[in-house]
Amino acid sequence: MKIEDIKSLFLKYKAADLHGRYITNQHIEPLLSKLPKEATVNIIGRSVQDKPIYSIKVGRGKKRLLLWSQMHGNESTTTKALFDLLNTLLLDHSSLKHLLEACTLYIIPILNPDGAAAYTRINANEVDLNRDAQNLTQPESRVLRAIFNEFKPHFCYNLHGQRTIFSAGNTNKSATVSFLTPAEDEACTVTQQRKVSMEVIAVMNATLQEVIPGQVGVYDDAFNINCVGDTFQSENVPTILFESGHFHADYDREKTRELIYMSYVVSLNYIAKNDVTGAHYKPYLDIPENEKLFFDIIIRNALVDGVVVDLGIQYQELLNGEILEFIPKILKIEKLEGFYGHKEIEAHGNEVLNEIGERLEIDSENVLVQIKGEKVLLKTK
Prior knowledge:
2 domains; 28% helix
């Protein structure tokens, strides 16, 4: 499909009621109730705090794909894009009709509804569900495992979000979208299942490079059998980790949402139209590995205690009621050669103080700073 056609579909079918980073059951339930009859919506389990875990099943094809989002409750961009995709599949009766004929999609939009409501990575028992694939100590983990056993997918899409710290390789380009085909053994062997998922990732990357050149990365494939992706891959099901990251000034992740949507459409179209054998996996190996080279803000050449240094500032995400706030926190006071800021401020060797004119401290939160007596706002919104 042409990129402009996919962009047009996104704009037409974007789920306008979902916006920002704070997405919970309360936000998706009205959308679930409005889905056309072609979508089968069920409650497939309950969370630790007895919230429903929903599933959506669409399509009638032989190729089965299992997709789950918000395993980490504060990683919601892929959830928004799932509803954009559902709108497109169910309301557009021509462009992507072939996907529903070739594929059956089993979607769990929010696997961790307690974590989503609290805006935390972990569940209500303070367990990272992505480290519970073997022990299955949590009800949410057992729900996913039961569906995996019952549905018997041919592909798994493990949908996540990543912090703003990541660069696509050793560059000053943010890793706006990242992927991984998880390992299935300690040696990280490039097995047949991994080649299949690598081939699909390579196709998505080729499209994304036309839109965000140099801004796609992959994660280190170090093996951890406790991770869900590693477990499912080791059980011979090609599994793809999606990570939605930072696009310039896009802290609501709305541009990234479009890019994830594009990745869904491109990959599903490829799977629907092709017998994916893994023969074309090698371009995956050329995607740069993510590095941690970014701060949200760097104040360059700041005078602190008589020494010229850089200030590395990272936003801390704080849920205030139902409003997500980004609080600037100073993490580094040192020269930061080789690091980059999504926003950079030049102090020109002038003294930088906090809001009330006192010296800056590591781990201090500062909505604004003073440079040469002038107040500079750090908070994004």
